[in-house]
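Morning run. Coffee first, then this:
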Amino acid sequence: MSISKIISLFFVLSFLVNCTGKNGASNNIFEQNNSDFGEISQSSIEFFNSSIGDTILFNVDESTLRNESITVLNDQANWLKENQSLPITIEGHADEQGTREYNLALGARRATAVRNYLVSQGVDESLLSIVTYGKERPIEICSEEKCWEQNRRAVTVVTGGLGN
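And here it is:
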């Protein structure tokens, strides 16, 4: 048997030995319970983003909250009140139509509308800040309505550190 085969065999055996803990329990990740890999708890930021929703959409040239946004904002407010120590940034965005200045102002109005609603629902105003990006950070890029409507938004970003 060649020296390279012996070394390879040694590494394979070392790996297999290390897959068993001191008590004989397997450390093989394929045998572990899936819950060991971080279920999304209701207090996690990931839960906030994926299950509650962090994005509020707006109509063209408007900063008025849509009726369908109120449910998401109510859920955001409830989660934020339960996690009161986390700082929040609300980002205002616009589509590519219009001037840079107009879209920055529109983004600010959208972020302010979301902030004001969250405060009206009992979220601590001192934890909320706003920033406007106007048309500078699109999530969809094309000169069509299907893209523009995704870019007319406010995004609630949890900026604090919270474990999953």
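The helical segments are 3-18, 45-53, 67-82, 100-120, 145-151. Good start to the day.
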